[in-house]
Amino acid sequence: MKPLLRAVLVINALIFLAFGVLFLLTPWAAVGIGASRDRAAAVCRTSCSGLR
User: For residues 20, 22, 27 and 32, what is the CA-based torsion angle, rounded to 10 degrees?
Assistant: First the structure.
């Protein structure tokens, strides 16, 4: 394998690894991913209670 290609592939792998670690360490509750599900459940409980 050519040295330049090897260097590019190693750098590319390190970049992917860094973004993967950042993805795993992201506080998803602060982003709002987990909160939106809880909010939708609360809205359904209040608005759908008259249908029962």
Answer: -70
